[in-house]
Amino acid sequence: xxxxxxxxxARARRRQTRYRIAVLPGDGIGPEVVAEGVRVLRxxxxxxxxxxxxxxxxxxxxxIDAYGVPLRPETVEACRRSHAVLxxxxxxxxxxxxxxxxxxxxxxLGLRKALKLYANLRPVKLIDALIAVSTFKPxxxxxxxxxxxxxxxxxTYFAQPKKVWSTPxxxxxxxxxxxxxxxxxxxxxxxxxxxRARRKLLHCVDKVNVMATSRLWRQVAERVKGDYPDVTFxxxxxxxxxxxxxxxxxxxxVLVTDNLFGDLLTDEAAMLAGSLGMLPSASLGAGKLGLxxxxxxxxxxxxxxxxxxxxxxxxxxxxxxxxSLGLSDxxxxxxxxVERVLERGLRTIDLARPGERTAxxxxxxxxxxxxxxxx
Length: 375
Ligand code: IPM
Ligand code: MG
Hints:
CATH superfamily of the largest domain: Isopropylmalate Dehydrogenase
CATH architecture of the largest domain: 3-Layer(aba) Sandwich
Bound molecules: 3-isopropylmalic acid, magnesium ion
Oligomer: single chain
Number of strands: 12
Radius of gyration: 21 Å
């Protein structure tokens, strides 16, 4: 046994793949939570003998300050050369002037588009230890384990025209929602494939009663669903879905929806898992390259205080290991470590109940990393 343990690192060294990861901390609490994600990644590297090469780049408001643009072409290139990208969050009041031509959010939207990451997976899984933390009744959320597929590079976020202009009768503004058949089909197929690997239940969320794009989604879905006869497929209106998620969330397994509905519904669904700070995400395209980020945003109100919950980022690292690097044992180790520290009662401020002791961002990250190291 001892010889095996002693020889393992030498052998691992010879065969070692180097995993290149672009790290984009961004703004607000982004750098704080990403530091903890990186800490956990390093612990994974040590325990499993993996070599992660991290390359950090400035994006968002920080890049506007340093370079005048939220996302530099060099950064996009560096991400393309990587096996995966880990992002914190972008944005903040400093760059919030509604008339500004450059905005931090353009970094994340630009990256998603440039890397063609059209499918955003947002798993919402309640960790048992957090059942009492949620604002929902335990009997409503017990067993919640669902996943959203949010279409990420089309719809209202990208289509033109998108502008505000003045007219003699005052200001006007327009946003356009546009989808092509191909964009809809590839998002739907991600939903069907995921459903097939899980409970074989897929909901397609839309507003077919008002939107032409929703009618397109349904038309495409009617054709595509024939390839997945083993999956139970249902439509649900987005407003009804918002309600139903709070009423009987365990009725859902995989939900596929457009860019805007997906953004709104996943913030809502995050509360089923106890806190917005718990939710990770994976943005994927045709290849293995993926962008991994917590869904919570830059939270400028608590930035710089060391109190943000790093678990959404740490769980994003688990998704990165599993989906882009194919390292499922390593991914499982991170997820188990998160469950263990929560079972032990460690709570960042968003998870703490009145009077409970709270852990700082780095205490939480260190606890998970130690747990990973311990195995
Ligand atoms: C998210 C965020 C982004 C989005 C913002 C920062 C542009 O809210 O990832 O959910 O709306 O996609
Ligand atoms: Mg959002």
